[in-house]
């Protein structure tokens, strides 16, 4: 039986290498710098600085920003903005829990705002009777901090002290009331970072995950910058995969959000039955975005056969049927005309292998079988967070469970339309 053990060991090594390559190609928690129109290439500081300098120059030379108000509009030149790269990189360093030079080695990418100020306020001061200059300048600086190509609507002078809803998110969950009690209401001061773990320290795990995920969805519909967010290893049961924000104080997994404005963001949670509602308001704010999460790049689970010497010749037992892997994309749509949709996150959930136990004689017969052999069907009881599988039914007479090595696998990639 030594040759069989050797073949199993080789198959195991191939399986592990394949899974590592797939994970590196599609990391489980890849996240684009949310709400940011610029990106940096991993490399030495001087190279990153040169790259960012080039992107800023391109942005400044791309024309004017149109600022609309109730009875008209005016233009603000992008060349009027002054960027502080040293302070920008310091902000990046402060927002990272790892050394700044290892910033891009993290699985979860962390966004950071550029430090920028509008140098010439003359154009805005000419409209100080109809717009709130300070609030409008804050919006312009925030757009510039992301190198955004969006135009903006000025804050009306009459609405300067009136908060407006910038984001509203709701979904059904049995824990709606409990989650709303956790979040209640709070503010994020201007130019500061919100940390979920520092703000909410006492609740059961499920309610924490729902609270963090619902807040994350609400923040995606604002101009706040998602500095840190993590996904789960398997699709969550409490919310659609790709919409979650996994938090854990013990494992140092946090949800961090930066308010780039000079005035606070006001967050409030309510519930009505099983309906959880999250609302974010700001002075002079209006809703600008909608988000949608879709699934694609479906990958069928590997089929792993392992032998059990206690099985009868020809006997086969389904241990688990596996779970399909897929990629989840969250797309943000602007409610303003002329702005293209933006993919803000792309998360990958690897497939969970299907496992079948066979007798040693059956394992010998199938060891040279083609890898596209169809998997058997059966029931499975799976852990939602770890991917571990357990037998959900009794096997045939004389069948017991034993720890053995995988013998063969199958990988098939297929394209499907996102579920409706």
Structure description:
It is a single chain. The chain is α+β, with helices and mostly antiparallel strands and 420 residues long. It folds into three domains: 2-26 and 295-327 and 353-414, no CATH class; 31-161, no CATH class; 162-287, no CATH class. Helix content is 25%, strand content 27%. The chain has helices spanning 2-25, 45-60, 85-95, 122-125, 133-145, 176-183, 196-199, 205-220, 360-366; strands at residues 64-69, 72-77, 81-84, 115-118, 152-153, 163-172, 185-188, 192-195, 225-228, 256-259, 265-272, 275-283, 289-299, 303-307, 316-320, 325-334, 342-349, 354-358, 381-382, 389-390, 413-414. The strands form seven sheets. It has a four-stranded antiparallel β-sheet. A hairpin with a 7-residue loop joins strand 16 and strand 17 (342-349). Helix 6 crosses helix 8 (205-220). The protein starts with a helix and ends in a 6-residue tail after the last strand.
């Amino acid at each position: 039986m030594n040759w069989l053990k050797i073949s199993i060991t080789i198959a195991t090594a191939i399986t592990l290498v394949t899974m590592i390559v797939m994970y590196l190609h599609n990391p489980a928690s890849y996240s684009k710098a949310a709400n940011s129109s610029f990106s940096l290439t991993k490399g030495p500081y001087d190279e990153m600085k040169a790259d960012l300098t080039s992107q800023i120059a391109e942005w400044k030379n791309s024309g004017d920003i149109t600022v609309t108000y109730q009875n008209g509009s005016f233009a603000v030149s992008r060349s009027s903005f002054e960027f502080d790269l040293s302070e920008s990189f310091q902000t990046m360093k402060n927002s990272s829990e790892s050394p700044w030079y290892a910033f891009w080695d993290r699985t979860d990418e962390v966004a950071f705002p550029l430090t920028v100020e509008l140098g010439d306020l003359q154009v805005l001061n000419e409209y100080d009777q109809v717009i709130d200059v300070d609030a409008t300048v804050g919006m312009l600086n925030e757009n510039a901090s992301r190198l955004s190509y969006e135009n903006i609507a000025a804050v009306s002078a009459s609405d300067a002290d009136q908060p407006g809803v910038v984001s509203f998110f709701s979904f059904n969950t049995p824990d709606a009331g409990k989650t709303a009690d956790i979040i209640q209401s709070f503010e994020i001061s201007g130019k500061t970072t919100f940390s979920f773990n520092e703000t909410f320290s006492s609740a059961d795990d499920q309610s924490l995950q729902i609270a963090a995920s619902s807040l994350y969805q609400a923040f995606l519909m604002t101009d706040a910058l998602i500095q840190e967010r993590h996904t789960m290893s398997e699709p969550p049961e409490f919310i659609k995969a790709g919409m979650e924000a996994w938090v854990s104080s013990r494992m140092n997994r946090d949800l961090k959000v930066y308010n780039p404005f000079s005035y606070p963001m006001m967050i409030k949670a309510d519930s009505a039955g099983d309906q959880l509602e999250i609302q974010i308001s700001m002075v002079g704010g209006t809703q600008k975005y909608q988000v949608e999460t879709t699934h694609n790049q479906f990958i069928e689970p590997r089929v792993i056969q392992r032998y059990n010497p206690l099985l009868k010749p020809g006997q086969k037992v389904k241990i688990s049927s596996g779970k399909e892997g897929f990629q989840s994309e969250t797309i943000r749509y602007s409610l303003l005309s002329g702005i293209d949709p933006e993919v803000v996150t792309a998360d990958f959930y690897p497939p969970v292998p299907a496992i079948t136990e066979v007798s040693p004689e059956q394992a010998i017969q199938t060891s040279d079988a083609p890898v596209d052999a169809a998997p058997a069907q059966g029931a499975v009881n799976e852990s939602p967070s770890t991917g571990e599988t357990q037998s959900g039914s009794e096997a045939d007479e004389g069948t017991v469970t034993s720890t053995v090595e995988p013998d063969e696998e199958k990988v098939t990639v297929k394209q499907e339309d996102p579920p409706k």
